[in-house]
Amino acid sequence: MDSTTGRKKGAAAKLFLVAGLIVILFSVLLSGCARREGWGMVLWSVKGTAVKGGAVVPIYLKSNISKSYVIGLPDDNKTKIEVPFPSLEFFSSKSAAETRAREFAPYAALYLSAGRDGLPIREKPSVNARRVYRLRLGESVKVLSVADGEAVFTGGKALPGEWYFVQAIDGTRGYVFSNTMVLYEEKEGTAAPVIASSPAPSASLLDIIYAKPWRPAYYQIMVDDSTIDPDLFILRYGLFADAKNSQVRIELPGYSGAFSFTSVSQSGDWLVFEKSKLRIRFENESTIVADWSGTDQVLADEGWSQGGQAARFVQLDASIPVLLAGENSRRESELKAFFQRSSQLQSNGESTISFLSDTAGILSVDLKGTFEWSHTDQLPAGFAPEIPAEARDNVIKGEIRFGLHLGTAISSAWMGGFSLLVGDNPDRQDFVYRFENGQLVIAKADSVTLRGTTESLDTRFSSVNYYLVVK
C-alpha cells in the first residue's frame, strides 16, 4: 500500500514539474515576442501602412539571414510587419532614434527621381569621384541631406543644381547632382513622378536626331566613372544624321556604316528610314537606339558590342576635346609617377630609364613618352609588339602611354598600366606593372573594355621581371 502511494506521489510530482516547465517555456516565448531589439527611424515609407519617412518604430526582431527587421506600427500595437534593412536606421534607444528623427525631419518626405538612364551615385560630391551605383531612368532614391560639393561645369558654365546625400533602394549611399533629376515630396495619395520615355511631343523627333551628333552610350559611362580611354573616346565615333543628303552614318569601334534613305516613317516606337535597314527609337529625350538588324536585339549596358547590329547613343553635354585634354594630362602625370617610383631604385634622376631581363630583353622608357624594346627574341610570340620590317637591329620603338584604368579585379595586385603603340599600327599592346623586391614586374593585359577599364590579364602569358639598369 505504501509503495503504491509512493509511486502515485512520484508521478504527481513529475506531472507538476512538467507542467511548471511548460508554463516557464511559454512565459519565455511570450516575453521574447514582446522584447524589443531596439528602435528604428524610418527612411523609406512602407506602402499601405502608417509607417512614413521620419517615423520612430519599435524593432522586435533583426534577421541577418533575411536582411530584415520585424517592426511595430505607430498606430497599431498588435500588428507587426517585416521590412528590409535599408528601410530604416537602427538605434539602441528610443531617445537616440527620436533625436535622429528631428534631424531628418526636413528630408523625411523628399525623394529624387532619375531623369536620365545611367545617372551615377558617387562616393563623394564630385563628378570625379568613383561611381558606387548606376540609376535607371525613373528610379527613385531617398534624400538624406543636402551636401556641399564641387560645382559642375559644362561648356565652361556652371550647371544649376545641388548635391544631395542619398540612399538607393538596396541601401547604397552616396551623392547625386540634381541637375538631371526630379526632386519630389511624398504626400498622401501621390506617387513618384513619371519620367517620360520619349521626347516632348512639341519637339520634332527628326529635328532632334538631326540637331547634332549622337555619341555612343559608353561615352557617358566613361565620363561618369572617370575612365576615359583616348582610343575609344574620340570625335569619330557616333551617329551622324545628314538631312540634306538623306544619310545616317554610324561609326563605332569595329564598325562603320552609312545608311541612305528616301524618307522617314513611323512604325510604333520606331522611326523607319525607308529603303535602308536602319530604324531608330527614343528611350528618352537624350538617348536613342539605332538598329539595323531587323530584330529586337538585347543591348549590353555599354550600348554596343563587337559584331552587333544595334547600338545605343546619347547626347553628351560635355566637350570631347576638353575631356580628352584632361585625360591626356592625367596620363602624362602617370608617366612622371612611373619615373618617381623607378627613382626609388636608383640615386640619379635620368630622363631615360632602362630595365634588363635575361629572358625579356631591355626595355627603355623616356620621359617624353617614347620607348625602345630590344632583344625580345626569347619572349613568346604575341607578348611584345611585332618588330616592324624596317626596324634596325631588331629594336621595337614607339610611344608609351601610361595611365590605364585598372578594374577592381586586378587593381589591388598592380600599381598601374601602360600601352605601347608602334608606328602606324592602330593595334596597341596593354600591360600592367608593379615594383616588387627592387624589380619591375610587367604582365600582358587583355584589351580594354568599353567602360574604359582593364579588367583582366592575358592568361596565355606569364609575367616577366626586370632589373633596373643603374648608369
TrEMBL record:
InterPro entries documented for this protein: SH3-like_bac-type
Gene3D superfamilies linked: SH3 Domains
Pfam families to which the protein is assigned, alphabetical: SH3_3 (PF08239)
Species of provenance: uncultured spirochete
Top-level taxon: Bacteria
This protein's record includes keyword Lipoprotein: yes
Keywords: Lipoprotein
Domain SH3b: 107-184
Keyword Lipid metabolism: no
Lineage, uppermost ranks: Bacteria, Pseudomonadati, Spirochaetota, Spirochaetia, Spirochaetales
Protein name in UniProt: Putative lipoprotein
